[in-house]
Amino acid sequence: MILSGLRYEGPIYRPPSEANSLLVQTTIGCPWNKCTFCMVYKNGPKFKIRSIKEIKEDLFWAKENYLFPVETVFFPSGNSIIMKTDDFVEILSYTKKLFPNVKRITIYGSAQYIIKKGFDDMKKLSDAGLSRIHVGLESGSDVVLKNICKGSTSDIQIQAGNLIKKVGIELSEYVVLGIGGKKYSKNHISETIKVLNHINPDFIRIRTFLPKINTPILKEIETGKFKILTPHEILKETFDLINGLNVTSMIFSDHYTNYVRVNGRLPKDRQEMLDQIKKESKRDKDEFRKIFIGTE
Ligand code: SF4
Predict the structure, then answer these.
(1) Domain residues of the chain, as ranges?
(2) Collapsing DSSP states into helix, strand and coil, what is residue 232?
C-alpha cells in the first residue's frame, strides 16, 4: 500500500516530553475508558489494536519521508502496553532496525495491564527496546482510585511501578492534585506519598484536576458530591506532596493546569521547590487561573 502520510484515528495524546518524537499509533482509543475525570476517548472511536502490518507501514513511511533523524518514538494511543507481547516485540525490533539511532521508545500503560504481563513479558519488551512507560497513578489512595474508577488499587500501582523498574524501563508516574476533592484531599496526598515512596519512579509528573466536559466527575461537581479545591488548597497539596516524598525522582510540573511550576530533583531541590510554593501561596486567589471546564 502506498501511503501519503502517517495515519491517525481518534484523539492523539502524548506527554509534553514527547513533543519532538515520531508518533505512530499502535492502539486506537483506550481499552479501559472508564476513569471518571477523563474525556479523551469517551466519544470513541471504539478501542482497537492496530495490525502489525499497518503499524509497520506507518513506521516505514516515516523512515522514507521524515527529513530529520528520528531519535525518539512514542506509540499512542491509550495503553499500548495491552498489545500481545510478541507483536509488540516485533514492532519494537522493526523500529530499531529502521531507526538505528533511536534513543528512546515510549508508551502509556495502566498499572492493571502492566501487572498482567508479569516479569518475563515485561523483560522481553525492555530487551526489545521499550525504554520508558508513562503510568497514570493519579492517586495512591484506594478510596480515591475507586471513586474515579481507575481500575487499580494502591497495591496494583506499587506492583506495576516496581515491575517496570525491575526490568530496566524508565518510569514516569502522574499525580493529579485535587482529584480527591475537598473530602479526600488529606488522604489523597498522604497515600500518594506512600505509594510513590514504595516505587521511587524516575519521574513524577504533577497535573491539577480540571473538570472536563462530558465526564462523570463533572456531574458529581454539579450535584455537589465532589467539591473542587481552590488554588490555595491545591498549593497546599503540592507542598505536602513534595515535602513528604522520600524518593530520588525528578519532579516535573509540566502542565497548563498547575498553579505553580516546580521542577527539580528530590531530595536535592526540595527546599527550593517548597520555597517557591510558599511564595506562590501568598498570591491573592484572583491572581490564579480561573477554574473552568476543559474541553480537551
Ligand atoms: S485516564 Fe487513561 S486509562 Fe483512564 S480512561 Fe483516560 S486514557 Fe484510559
Answers:
(1) 16-284
(2) helix
The residues, ordered by sequence, that sit 6+ positions from 20 with a Cβ below 8 Å of its Cβ are: 71, 72
Q: Which atom of ligand 1 lies at the shortest distance from residue 110's CA?
A: 3
Question: Considering only 1-10, 30-39, 231-240, which range has the smallest mean pLDDT?
Answer: 1-10
Residue 283 pLDDT class (50, 70, 90 cuts): very high
Regarding pTM above 0.70, the answer is: yes
Express each pLDDT in 176-189 by its tens digit.
Answer: 999 999 999 999 99
Write the residue with the smallest CA distance to atom 8 of ligand 1: 33
CATH superfamily, domain 16-284, is Aldolase class I (3.20.20.70)
The pLDDT, as a whole number, for residue 10 is: 92
Spatial distance between the Cα atoms of 4 and 42, rounded to a whole number of angstroms: 29
List the Cα angle 26/32/37 in 5-degree steps.
Answer: 115
Question: Which pLDDT score is estimated for 84?
Answer: 98
Average pLDDT over residues 97-114: 97
For residue 30, give the ligand 1 atom closest to its CA: 8
The verdict on the CB of residue 40 being under 6 Å from ligand 1 is yes
Nearest C-alpha neighbor of 125 from the set 87, 75, 71, 174: 87
**CA 42 to ligand 1 center in whole angstroms:** 9
Q: How far is the CA of 10 from the centre of ligand 1 (A)?
A: 14
Minimum-distance ligand 1 atom for the alpha carbon of 42? 5
From the CA of 222, how far away is ligand 1's center (Å)?
22
